[in-house]
Amino acid sequence: MGRKSLERERKTDLNKTGVWADILFPFFQENGIKGITMNKIAEVLNKSKTTLYDYFKTKEELLEFLIDKQLNQIEEFVSILDNKKLSFVERHKKALEHLAMSISGISTVFLSDLRQHHPELWEKIEDFLVFASGILEKFYIQGIKKGEFKDINPALLAMSARLFFRMLADPDFLDDANLSIKQAFEQYLEMKFFGLVKEKN
Fold first, then answer.
1. How far is the CA of 170 from the CAs of 14, 115, 122, 128, 196, in angstroms?
2. Closest listed residue to residue 110, CA positions, set 170, 38, 186, 42
């Protein structure tokens, strides 16, 4: 019998992997995920494949790290909504602007490859959408009680946000509408802040 290989202990230098993430996330947005090997990733980072494997066993593990890092950044909208020094309207505006900025660099090719080739990682996106809409619903309930928002059913408001986020994560919808994620969110913010009725001169 052959000798049983020992599991290598993985390194966890968040400063180093954070720098790698800043390089790799834009790379995957431009090139997608399909067909990108660990060899190519090591080449992009200008590192040896051995060094890369010191931190990540597989490409999927690396992708999960990148996605978690991005979702953690997006999740900062929660602390903005909790900032009681601002009015509900100001918090809502700033939180949506943060979301717009955080997702503006995500591409449809990345989302398409993720959904098609890495369904387990795609579930992270789906779970986050449910989480985010739940946070927004609670915020709307508080704002309505304080009289800062119109008395519209908060579940309906949260559902509209959830449906929008879901469409935003659907590369087929974006392609059919001829929209980038950034363009879609900018128009969504326009509707949220100013409504659909055009002001008369």
1. 31, 9, 11, 14, 24
2. 170
Q: pLDDT tens across 34-85, in order?
A: 999 999 999 999 999 999 999 999 999 999 999 999 999 999 999 999 999 9
Tokens of 174: 């974006």
Q: Distance between CA atoms of 166 and 172, rounded to whole angstroms?
A: 11
Q: How far apart are CA 141 and CA 25, in angstroms?
A: 36
Q: Which helix (H) or strand (E) holds 198?
A: none
What is the CB neighbour count within 10 angstroms for residue 30?
10
| CATH number of the domain that residue 169 is part of | 1.10.357
Is residue 198, in this structure, part of any structural domain at all? Answer: no
Range of the domain at 147: 75-193
Minimal CA–CA distance to 139: which of 87, 190, 103?
87
Which amino acid does the sequence have at 33?
Answer: I
H-helix segments, 33-170: 38-45, 49-53, 59-74, 77-81, 88-103, 108-117, 119-145, 154-168
Residues 80, 130 share a domain? yes
CA distance 121 to 68: 10
Pull the structure tokens for residue 95.
């939180």
Q: What is the pTM of this model?
A: 0.78
